[in-house]
Amino acid sequence: MSRIGLLPILVPRGVEVQVEGNEVTVKGDKGELHRYFSPHISIALKDGELIVTRPSNSRLYRALHGLTRGLLANMVEGVSKGFERVLEINGVGYRAQKVGDKLLLRVGYGYPVEFPLPPGINAAIEGANRIHISGSDKEIVGEVAARIRAIRPADHYKGKGIKFAEEKLHLKPGKVGKVSKE
Predict the structure, then answer these.
(1) 99 with 76, same domain?
(2) What is the pLDDT of residue 72?
(3) Which residues pair with 51 in a beta bridge?
(4) Domains contained in the chain, number
(5) The CATH number of the domain where 43 resides is what?
(6) H helices within the chain, ranges in order?
């Protein structure tokens, strides 16, 4: 039995939810999100709460039940509070700069890397080495942060590169030279 799927989703004040069959639209201060869900799972709005139910206890429906509830909860939280990921850039001469709707990253290549931001995603640069990615859609915020990190992932030997702020980087020891037998 899905324990997550059984929990109702409280819709906060200022958030408007429209449910039409398997199509859900959520509007709030931070934006508007729209998504289609499986037609087998029913979604109902009752007394300011979203309730997700499934037709039977088969394995597929149990999985869809928890997934649907989780995605709906993320939509409601995204339009009311928003989501944010923080990236850190470490290295001598490594820095980030925002130019219009693009990020300009200088991360050790012979040229600066331009990264265009998708619509609905905001980036803020703190200092020269901390990037705050924010938006209302959790999936897109995480995907953009992962793509920026993939430009120059942190090196496990020197610690240089781009990493998530909460990521712990364990530095490996370098090679040990040969010991002569004299």
Answers:
(1) no
(2) 95
(3) 44
(4) 2
(5) 3.90.930.12
(6) 3-6, 59-80, 138-151
Asked if 136 and 82 touch (Cβ cutoff 8 Å), the reply is yes
Q: What's the DSSP call for residue 125?
A: E
Q: How many CA atoms lie within 13 A of 111 on its CB side?
A: 3
Specify the pTM. Answer: 0.87
Reported as a pLDDT band with limits 50, 70 and 90, residue 182 is: low
In this structure, are 73 and 106 located in the same domain? no
What is the C-alpha to C-alpha distance for residues 114 and 104, in angstroms, rounded to an integer?
A: 5
Q: Is the CA virtual torsion 14, 20, 21, 22 positive or negative?
A: negative
Distance CA 95, CA 88 (A): 9
What one-character DSSP code corresponds to residue 122? E
CA dist., res. 150 & res. 145, Å (int)? 9
| Residue 155 buriedness (CB in 10 A; 0-12 / 13-18 / 19+) | middle
Q: Are residues 135 and 153 in the same domain?
A: yes
What mean pLDDT is predicted for residues 118-125? 93
